[in-house]
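Researcher: Batch entry, complex prediction.
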Amino acid sequence: MIRRAALPRAETSLPAIGTVQHYAPQQTILAEGEPALHVMLIIHGMVRSCSSFADGRRFIGAFYGAGDLFGLERNQIGAAAKEAVCETSIVLYPAADWSDAVHAPDDLSRQIFRSMVTRCEQARCHARLLARLHAVERVAAFLIECHLRSAMPSRVTLEMPRQDIADYLGLTVETVSRCLAQLKRQELISLRSARELDLLNISALRAISG
Amino acid sequence: MIRRAALPRAETSLPAIGTVQHYAPQQTILAEGEPALHVMLIIHGMVRSCSSFADGRRFIGAFYGAGDLFGLERNQIGAAAKEAVCETSIVLYPAADWSDAVHAPDDLSRQIFRSMVTRCEQARCHARLLARLHAVERVAAFLIECHLRSAMPSRVTLEMPRQDIADYLGLTVETVSRCLAQLKRQELISLRSARELDLLNISALRAISG
DNA sequence: CGTCTAGTTGAGCCCTGTCAATAGTAGTGG
DNA sequence: CCACTACTATTGACAGGGCTCAACTAGACG
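Model: Structure tokens for the complex:
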């Protein structure tokens, strides 16, 4: 199912020259180690970048949402797999020659560079969280992060299951669940359902998350 | 103390157009949050990129060694501090206009982009380690990482104190020390002194480090 | 030799992981 | 509508890995 791309969001300055691809929940977009043949832009939905260990441990390096570019780390050995978290549509930009993005069309090149800087910063921030924050602090930080993506003022919808959150935060599902329960007891959040919650005290959450 | 730069290492294609700066151990090159006015290239020595929490917790996001570029994340809020780990010399490239590096001279631009991709990959790898590896595994991974920088076939010199290693690996000095002792007991390493050790079984270390 | 810092080692505790049971939630079919 | 299944999430009991606190050791330097 391939057709012309509509321009996804105001924040991206990319032209609608790519082709659109749809993915069902849990579907693999790019297997682990497989080189990216395209730069990909998410129209809607969510993608996780995850890598596994020989013994089954799993790590999620990032979640990408609508408007995010990914597939930038072309030709990297040991590149992380990219999987759709939920129903997801992305635009594929053929990237035959941008491995030095310096020579891509000027707009795309600049956008890629900016994304790359952002990725770096996010990865360091993620590492900082994993290195020095306690479980509750990590969960609070994650909620704040989700809130930044969210359009609603204090409502957050978690697109991913607890296992994904755990693998992103370097915890177990049980600990994630317990931390959410703790934040609820402290009346910093309230759970409408397992996947939907309200942030009752955002500044307190921000303070906890370091 | 400023003078013309000598070309640092074969692996960098940058011309010697910058000025050289020397730093003593522990000296701050760039304070936390301070914007980088230069792209910096290390000639010799070692630099740590570290950030602190309000309560004193510290995190080291990366160590940079000879031949590494840093100061790429210009104008970022909350940028990490850059400090000399030991006696260090760096070349400063004035970077007045490369905040979109796309418009820097072609060589520098490409080099910066390549460095950025590498930084991203390293940061994700670091996060993966912090999220899912046990203490001994982290220490083993760190030794392997140091070994890659090292010129010697199985000798590793640790330029940084235990506290820096701990803050890089998300552990405490005591745990780092205990893990080194454990690896020694398993005869995977031997300690010539606190800062200098031999890797006796590199493939086993690599296996441990995931 | 004394002092200072860095590193190691030990004892005890706590946070988080593990294992197991329970409770929701969605889907399917009678 | 309920029954049944399958899956996801929550909660509890317990154990263990890593942190805290403290003592000790090893170098470096005057």
